[in-house]
Structure to design on (274 residues):
């Protein structure tokens, strides 16, 4: 296929790989300094995208539309830094994430070397792949104005659901009266996963910013599809709901609340007569 600055994109991908290696190595060092607390890698997910956006923005200076490049870098960095800060704040004072504890308890050989391969490096590869729309958008030029407006609107919708949903859940959990109860208020009454839906909307918005032409749109398309699959069928919604299935009240909550895409909650069915 033609129509993309392939040499520039290849150089940027190599730069991105180096940035991610440095970030993941630093994150692993922090984890080991905390006694092998590998949950810190979750904060590196958002930081990785922010770092790639900033590095790509600097490397692409003089190429393409400056305002568009800055828009792409800012939107990506704002999303990534907010997510990283939220995850770090949420995990303060806690021990190892149960997901990592279960995985590392079964690790062959040294558990920390296993974590470096199976968690840190794998996450770095995923960030590199999923960030394709950002890398392409920095070099391929701006899409038509209606697509740019739609991209910003979709990104803003996603940030609203993600940030507000996270804040509502944090306030709910901070109230001792809610211990053991399911969060079913605010945005959580419209979707069981406002934060995951928010990520979904943000990344489809960033994808639209890469759609300067058919070639760019097709090359960038696998990235939001992979992110959507992770959020809905992988480590997001599906994994969390398997853990929540036995919670008291879950079945009723799931029956009235959308599993992913927001909609008003269903009213409980009236009991049948007779």
């Amino acid at each position: 296929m033609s129509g993309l600055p392939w040499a520039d994109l290849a150089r940027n991908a190599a730069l991105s790989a180096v940035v991610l290696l440095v970030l993941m190595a630093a994150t692993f060092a922090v984890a080991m300094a905390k006694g092998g607390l590998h949950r810190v890698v979750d904060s590196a997910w958002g930081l990785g995208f922010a770092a790639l956006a900033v590095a790509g923005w600097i490397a692409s200076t003089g190429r393409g539309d400056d305002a568009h490049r800055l828009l792409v870098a800012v939107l990506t960095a704002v999303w990534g830094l907010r997510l990283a800060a939220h995850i770090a704040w949420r995990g303060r004072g806690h021990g190892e994430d149960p997901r990592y504890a279960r995985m590392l308890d079964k690790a062959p050989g040294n558990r920390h070397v296993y974590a470096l391969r199976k968690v840190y490096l794998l996450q770095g590869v995923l960030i590199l792949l999923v960030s394709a729309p950002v890398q392409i958008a920095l070099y391929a030029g701006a899409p038509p104005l209606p697509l740019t407006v739609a991209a910003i609107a979709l990104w803003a919708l996603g940030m609203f659901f993600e940030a507000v949903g996270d804040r509502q859940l944090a306030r709910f959990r901070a109230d001792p009266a809610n211990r053991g109860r399911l969060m079913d208020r605010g945005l959580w009454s419209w979707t069981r996963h406002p934060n995951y839906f928010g990520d979904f909307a943000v990344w489809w918005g960033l994808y639209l910013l890469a759609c300067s032409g058919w070639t760019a749109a097709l090359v960038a398309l696998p990235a939001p599809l992979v992110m959507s699959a992770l959020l809905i069928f992988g480590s997001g919604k599906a994994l969390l709901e398997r853990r929540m299935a036995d919670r008291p009240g879950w079945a009723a909550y799931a029956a009235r609340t959308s599993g992913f895409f927001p909609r008003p909650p269903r009213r409980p069915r009236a009991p049948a007569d007779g």
